[in-house]
Amino acid sequence: MNVVGIVALAVLAAAALLTLVRLARGPGTLDRAMAVEVLVTTIVAGAGVAVAVWQYTTAVFVLLVLALLGFIGAVTAARLVEEREDMR
Fold this sequence. Notes:
Blueprint: H1 2-25, H2 29-54, H3 60-87
Helix pairs in contact: 1-2, 2-3
């Protein structure tokens, strides 16, 4: 199981690096907001893999908080986009 976990973490790290590139190069605010949400989701997935592989049962609460922050960020980004469209 360790090999599978390490491979999964490597793939998630590559995804996080590509997301950071999109975050830096994103042409618009919405692209950058989506990149932040994808990055938070990737971090939650990586923490979930670490919890499963190394059996850190106390980190489940950290996963819950990160998932909640990702949800709040998504709702905030959606409201921001909605307000900007109303201004047009």
